Amino acid sequence: MRSRAAAVLVALTLLAGACTGGDDGSAGGGDRGTAGPGATLDWDGCGDDFECARLAVPLDHARPDGERIELSVVRLPASGRRIGSLLINPGGPGGSGVQYARAARTVVSEALRERFDIVGFDPRGVGESVPVRCLPSSELDAYVGLDGSPDSPQEVTALVEGSRRFAAGCRSRSARLLPHVGTADVARDMDMLRAAVGDSRLTYLGKSYGTQLGAFYADLFPDRVRALVLDGAVDVSLGPLEVGASQAHGFEVALDSFLSDCLRVTDCPFTGSVASARAEVAGLLRRADAAPLANSTGDGRTVTQAWTVLGMIAPLYDRQAWPTLRQALDRALRGDGTPLLRLADWLMDRREDGEYANQTEANLAVNCVDAPYPGDPAAYAAAARESVKRSPLFGAYVVWSALPCAYWPAKGEERGRIDAPGAPPIMVVGTERDPATPYEWAEALASQLSSGVLVGFDGDGHTAYLSGSACVDRLVDDYLIDLAVPRDGIRCPKIG
């Protein structure tokens, strides 16, 4: 559940290559570089006005005096009258908070950059912070390309064997870390980072999975919350296979919105109605399942149904990438899967040299320990059949994608209710046609948090802040700077 950060710029180049006040001191503002024992930061300049540091945290928070690991941290100092630090997280799980903060000038408003140090970190297991590793990139190519909607015993067997190999690779290469990369562990790291930057209470902007991280933080440390914005919210009450089924429906809703828009423009590869266009998309997926689409990149990969699905999903994250999706689908309908493959590479963080960032591995590592997953493939098959009834294009694929968790070496545990009793008002933002975090998730999280305040946006794409809605941007900035809490249930209108 990655955020929309940088999605537009990346997607649009793929085919071409083939207010004041509010400073009440509540955010702290003491010595920026010191904290309690074991939580210090020595900042060094690292280019373009950014400063970088490493934060030492316990590998196991239950053993605070035991082995330590280091997290990579970056900040852009406030340009004006400083309130404190704004910690930001792009989601995932597996998204790099360091890279996200490096893009602060495009993902955070000028008003926030004036009043806050913008701080990002790579969570444990991610990027530059003791990354989880499972498979060489060549084996990841094979794993990602597996049929994610198996419709024969042979395809189920192949998916089971691939999932077992993935989990075994994680055990072989990252066993020491795997039990300690859950969201609660990262929330505790985040509290150490809050102290290390000198803030008495946390100010935070989390997107997508970052909303789950923020909710866990508020539940663990409600008295240490200053202001949290949870944008593109995750429903933390859902069971693990329920998450996949619900998210699949979110992608179906977003696809229908894309198709409705497509049919109104001249370069749309479809004609007729949304229903007939969906039928053509379904036919494309069936053809890719029967025989891979062409790939002109020369890298030897076959554009299977799985790569086709991923390439379709990627541009749904941002409305401004819809022209790219129109062109990619036009090519795919004529047998060329290369543009969709490039879009899938962006989504999976596969680089031009064929190497992957560790986003896919970290994503599963966190999800698999955050909840107890069924250990029997039959449970995934049953959940997939149910999901397809509501989400015929994406339901099976998204549900089956969690199968490695059935064989994960570090088992997940049931979590209690996440309601953050005693926390100050927490702003939860939902976009009505969000593909990755459906709007009903925002409604659910806002109702579960004892102080949740819901802000809705009549929009498309994943997450709302700085996506073109002046209404959303104003509400977020006023809340983070001045602690001005919006009216619960307020709805920002559609733009354009």
Short description:
The chain is α/β, with parallel strands linked by helices and 496 residues long. The protein is built from 18 helices and 10 strands.
Descriptive terms for the model:
496 residues, globular, disordered N terminus, 2 domains, alpha/beta, 18 helices
Helices, strands, pairings?
Layout: H1 7-17, E1 44-45, E2 51-58, E3 68-76, E4 84-89, H2 97-102, H3 104-107, H4 110-115, E5 116-121, H5 137-144, H6 153-174, H7 183-196, E6 202-207, H8 209-220, E7 225-231, H9 240-262, H10 274-290, H11 305-313, H12 322-333, H13 338-348, H14 359-370, H15 377-390, H16 395-400, E8 426-433, H17 439-448, E9 452-460, H18 470-482, E10 490-492
Parallel strand pairs: 4-5, 4-6, 6-7, 7-8, 8-9, 9-10
Antiparallel strand pairs: 1-2, 2-3, 3-5
Helix pairs in contact: 1-12, 1-13, 7-8, 9-15, 10-11, 11-13
Explain what this protein looks like in three dimensions.
Strands 1-2-3-5-4-6-7-8-9-10 form a ten-stranded mixed sheet, sandwiched between helices. Helix 8 links the parallel strand 6 and strand 7. It is built from 18 helices and ten strands. The protein has helices at about 5-15, 95-100, 105, 110-115, 135-145, 155-175, 185-195, 210-220, 240-260, 275-290, 305-315, 320-335, 340-350, 360-370, 375-390, 395-400, 440-450, 470-480, and strands at about 45, 50-60, 70-75, 85-90, 115-120, 200-205, 225-230, 425-435, 450-460, 490. The chain has about 500 residues and is α/β, with parallel strands linked by helices. The longest helix is centred in the middle third of the chain and has 23 residues, at about 240-260.
